[in-house]
Amino acid sequence: MKRLFSVLFILMLCHGPAEAGHEIVVVQSAHVKPFEEAIKGFEQMCDADLNRIIISESQGVDVVREIKLKRPDLVLAVGGDALSEIKRIKDIPIVYVMVLNPQVALLGQENITGVSMNIPPNKQLQALVQTLPRAKRVGLLYDPKNTGYLVEEAQQEAAKMGIVLTAREIHHARDVATSAIEMKGDIDVFWMLPDVTVMTPETVEFLLLFSLKYRIPLLAFSEKYLDLGAFLSTGIDAFDMGAQAGDMADKILSGMEVKRVQQALARKYVVSTNLMIAGKLGIGLNLAMTSDDHNEKIVKHTLTLQ
């Protein structure tokens, strides 16, 4: 019996302590609610130790150097600025979340995957048609190098739905005002795309005034524009998007190659309507899209992408 215990003791010493949990460095662009929600969703699906670096609060810090010193098993990039900061890392798996247009920046990078904030054009158009069935003429501005691929898809989907899509190329923010005014008589709705050339603080202010002056509602890609005066927005469910990213990270930490974990779109999106702006623009809403409480300024609906 003593010999048996001796053998077991030696085996325990040889085996060593239990394997430590995985370590993940979370690099987030800023400390804002949607990013925090995404991280909560991530934690629900991926059981790992998280160490955070918040770029907006880490001026002067070499983020890539800090990550390499920590030698984590994986890096989670939350927000576009975070992904831009760390995308030059080649030897550590990276999963991103809450990023618009990641395809433009990540061509050929095999150690990076994640969940894009981009809502498929057909879903945005479906939300528009459900809310404004008579809106058959839609206009947008875009810079081909940023959102050309989105506009190509949007044109195909619009044609299927019987929508006339007027898409004009621009290459500088100074062209937004002239181009928008030129199309005002030919469109029922102006579609704001997540294009950094088109969407600057100055052009957003112009488009909001343009909407009110010419009674042309704005379809936006984020609810924050509803607070400023847009009519309708389609956005993502940050918590669920984080859960998607967590599932990806879990697969990678379990041994799957990053390149086999395909980049994905969000599974859920939120349709929000600004009832106050609807009143100012004289828009008769399809009330099937609104809540029972019509006293609220903004009404939301969470839908699942198919």
Can you count the helices?
12
How many structural units, i.e. domains? 2
Tell me the helix content. Answer: 40-55%
What letter string, H or E per element, gives the SSE order? HEHEHEHEHEHEHEHEHEHEHEEHE
| CATH class designation of the largest domain | Alpha Beta
Query: What's the N-to-C terminus distance?
Result: 63 Å
Tell me what portion of residues adopts beta-strand conformation: 15-25%
Predict the CATH topology of the largest domain: Rossmann fold
Biggest sheet, in brief?
Answer: 7 strands, mixed
CATH superfamily of the largest domain: Response regulator
Please render the helix and strand layout as text:
Blueprint: H1 2-15, E1 23-28, H2 33-45, E2 49-54, H3 63-70, E3 74-78, H4 80-86, E4 94-99, H5 102-105, E5 112-116, H6 121-131, E6 137-142, H7 144-160, E7 164-169, H8 176-183, E8 189-191, H9 201-214, E9 218-220, H10 224-228, E10 232-236, H11 238-253, E11 264-265, E12 268-274, H12 275-281, E13 298-304
Parallel strand pairs: 1-2, 1-3, 3-4, 4-5, 5-11, 6-7, 6-8, 8-9, 9-10
Antiparallel strand pairs: 10-12, 12-13
Helix pairs in contact: 2-11, 8-9
